[in-house]
Every structure is written in C-alpha cells, then in structure tokens.
Amino acid sequence: MDCNDSRSFLSDERLIYAITVPLSTSIILANVVIILGIAWNRQLHNTPNYFFLSLLVADLCTGVALPFIPLMGLNRELSFSSCMVAHIFPNFLFLAFLLNLVMVHYERYICIVDPLHYSNLWMHRSCPLALLAAWLPPLLYASLPSFGWNNWTGSDWNGCCENGQKAAALANCSTNGTMCCSYRRVFSNAFIFLEVYGLVLPAILTIAAMTGRVLLITRGQLRDICRLHRSVERGNATSDQEHRLNLRYTRCVVAVSLTFLACWVPYLIYMHVCIVFLISDTKWSSTTHIVLSCTGIGSMAVVPLVLGLANRQYTEPAHKILQKLRDRWGRGTQGLEEVAV
After folding, report:
1. Are 24 and 61 in contact (CB under 8 A)?
2. Where is the G-protein coupled receptors family 1 profile domain (predicted)?
3. Is domain 7-150+182-310 given the CATH code 3.90.226.10 in the classification?
4. pLDDT in tens, 31-73
C-alpha cells in the first residue's frame, strides 16, 4: 500500500479498531478482575500466583497493545524513532507474554510431574530472578532492530512516494523527518524467521507437550485409583464413582482440546500464512491480513483468561461483589413494589 493512499489507510485503520477495540476491552477487563481477585485474597500471595500474576500483567499489556499490532502490517509515514517504537514495543509485549505463559505452564508441570522436588525448584528459590528472566530476554531480542538489525537504507526516506515525486518527498523529509514505515524495513527476514521458528513455535510446542504429558499422567493416576477402588470393593463392575471420575477426565481432555483449537490454531494459521507471503514476496489483501492478525493474536491472548477464570479463588471477590449488587437490586425492587401496593 502506498503511504500517500490515505483513503485506503483510513479504511484499514477503521477495520482494525472495529475488530480489536471490543476484544481488547474484554481482555483488559477480565485481566483486571483476576488481578484484583489475587490481590485481595491474602491466601493467594505465594510464588505460583506471583508467576501467574506476571502472566496476567503481560496479557493485560498485550490487550492494551492489541489494536496496534495489526497496524504493524500497514505502511505509515513516521519518523525513524517513532517507527521503531511502534514495531518494537508491541513485539516485546507479545514475546514477554509468551515467555510468561511458558514459565507458568512449566511451574505447574513440575508440580505434577515431580511434586517431591517442587518446593526446591529454582523458580521458587529465586522468584525475582525468574520474573526478570521472563521479561528481560524478550526486551533485548525485540530491541535488536534498533541496534542495526533492520532493513533501513538511505533510499527509504519516504520511499513509498512514487510517480516522480521523490524530489518533493526528500524535501519534505528535511522538514518533518518522516519516512514510509513498514515492518519489512524494521524487521529483516532473518529476524522474523528466528523469532517464529526459534522462539514462538518452540514455545507453543513446549506448552502443548507439557499439557499432553500432564494429561497422560492424570490418566495413569486415574487408572490406579479405579484399580484400588475395585480391590477395596472386591468387584469387577465399574462403580458410579469410577464413572464420575472418567467423566471428569473426559471433560478435562475436551476442555484442553477445545482451548488449543480455539486459542492456538488461529494464531498458528496466521503465523504460517505470514511466513508464506514473506517468502514469496507477494502482496496480499490488507483486509485478509487484518482479520487474520486480529483473530490470531486476540485468540492467543485469551489463554491466561481461561486459566484464571477456571479457578474460583481468582474470581471469588468478583462473585461476592455481584452478589451484593444483586441483593441491593432485589431489595430496591421489592421496596418499590411495596410502595406501589
């Protein structure tokens, strides 16, 4: 898209805000509810919940930056520093969110796989250092383009201006210092490939592998419980308790599978479609890019909310507030009815 094509840019910008603003608002509000639930309950002030709180903060920041992430795929007239910030900062928040998510899954994975050594885990002994490790490496990697790993050249100043307007464009550059800003000029192909196949995809596969291992361990423990129950009852028939345990495990597997399909698959599709078009170096519909990026990144940001809202301890303060509001509303309507009678 041409940087001077203001009509097309405005239409794409409106589409981005129309999709991302409601989704971003929902993500922010849900994270705030869970964060306040952890902050108000002193029993939840422990190391595992500190890790989860860090993930919620990263998810909250991702929700705030969500409307700006699809804008990275559009060409805009920005100064060099503004262009770098507009691309580096959302990328840093996304990588920090992903690394925090891996850390939370790893902490819970060790709790189930090796419970005897869980309290001696390095993450528990050095909680501040572990939290710093979840935020500092993403910041360092995302900042590499600002240190020279980019595709900027001297001819990039207002490089989108065509049809014999280059002299006027260069004159304009000398006055306001703007240039055609795009992700292709900020991120080199090597940087994108390393981030996708060296950081993002291994992190997603690691989360999937840990989740699958936990389900297998849970299945084995369930079989042992059923075997002990049968030996105590001295019968071969399956009892109602075994049926309930198997049903609960089945629901857990279904919930995990649906979460992966709904939250991770859209992002994986978006990521690989972007790589295909990057390799082929072909232009694609801005509308398609906007829809895929908004749905892919937005669905991935829902993962911590699924983990948080599934825990009643995190949402208990919100439930109490809603219950009080319902009681007051019920008393108010009852009083109005009595006055009317």
Report:
1. no
2. 30-307
3. no
4. 999 999 888 888 888 888 999 999 999 999 999 998 888 888 7
